[in-house]
Amino acid sequence: MTNVVLITGVSRFLGGRLAAQLAADPSIDRVIGIDMMPPRTADLQLLGRTEFVRADIRNPLIAKVMTQARVATVVHAALMASPRAVGGRVAMQEMNVIGTMQLLAACQKSDTVERVVVRSTTAVYGCGPSDPAVFTEDMHPHDGSQAGYAKDAVEVEGYVRGFARRRPDVDVSVLRLAAILGPTIDNAMTRYLAMPVVPAAIGFDPRMQLLQEDDAVEALRLAATSHRPGVVNVAGDGVVLLSQVLRRAGRVRVPVPGAALGLAATIVRNTGAVDVTAEDARYLNFGRVVDTTKLRTEFGFTPQHATGDAVESYLRGAPPRPRLALAAVGVGSRLLHARRESRRLAMSGT
Q: Which of 102, 127, 181, 193 is most buried by a 10 A CB count?
């Protein structure tokens, strides 16, 4: 039987990097990349012999692609974290949840699929003031804090569990990746840290556990090429405080009330500098740390980069620290105004 791998989200960072690695593996006969938008011209050469198929996984025709290619391994790396990237929260939910349902339905009908790998997120645990010191894979969020991307990921994992029960003959791996940081990835975290003026909640200094971008790709590669079923947290060792990260990055920290962090994020988002969702704002208040014992002992992988190393990796690849240009000063002024306005409203009792 030929070894054919299908990867969703191939035009994005994780899917594209994984496709490039698998395309260079002589033991894999074909690599098929699925996405709604074609890869950037600059990335085409990196994808090597990857065959790109422009398709929407929400369409049942995805089953036809899998059947004709006789796909053996499916890597679902297409979960969207930013509603702005797809035109809003409703479209994002459809892509994440309905797309996963259609993909799993195609896998269930297939007589060639032997392995399914799903890129999930540690955001499924939520984050709040009553969180445990660390989350293990058998824990569930207890404060109803899930929203947006996290809520979608919880639903996706539910459908994956149902698929695994219906197809016990298929290896199913769910990788809950921590926040990814590195020199080349572009996501909400890197854009937040790249801002010269950074809003941070007064009285909060969250513990952050990060995953370096190369380790994220390697974990997916291992799951796609070997028998490593189950649900596993994937994160670097150790934790850092947000204040430590901002100091290392040389960013100007603008304190705002915790309740106003969402307002501050909206102001910053409207400048086009960063897209901070309400879910991101909670994470920047409370943080999140997960247990990675299962990653090392059962999955058989130890990330090469600890959390602190991921920060340094990002800083080495980041552009030089910008001076406080007029635009940045303007953002800072608006953030300070939001802080004063929030304080005034609190004192007036409105």
A: 181
Write the CB contacts of 221 (distance below 8 Å, at least 6 apart in sequence).
18, 21, 22
What is the bridge-based pairing of β-strands 207-208 and 240-241?
antiparallel
CA dist 153 → 67, 86, 126 (Å): 26, 16, 11
Q: What pTM did the predictor assign?
A: 0.87
- Place 331 in a pLDDT band, splitting at 50, 70 and 90: very low
CB atoms within 10 A of CB 220: 26
Q: Three-state DSSP class for 49?
A: coil
Contacts of 187 (CB under 8 A, 6+ apart): 13, 81, 180
| Strand ranges across the sheet with 30-35 | 51-54, 30-35, 4-8, 73-76, 115-121, 171-177, 230-234
Question: For 111-122, what is each residue's pLDDT tens digit?
Answer: 999 999 999 999
3-state secondary structure of 140: coil
The confidence band for 327, taking pLDDT boundaries of 50, 70 and 90, is very low
Q: Distance (Å, rounded) from C-alpha 62 to C-alpha 57?
A: 6
Q: Name the residue with tokens 């990746």.
A: 177
Under 8 Å between Cβ of 243 and 253: yes
Nearest to 150 by CA among 77, 217, 92: 92
To 10 degrees, the CA torsion angle through 150, 155, 160, 162? 150
Our CA angle for 307, 196, 245, nearest 5°, is: 20
Cβ neighbourhood burial of 304 (10 Å; 0-12, 13-18, 19+):
exposed
| Those residues with Cβ within 8 angstroms of residue 320's Cβ, 6 or more apart along the chain or in another chain | none
Paired sense of beta strands 252-256 and 197-201, if any: parallel
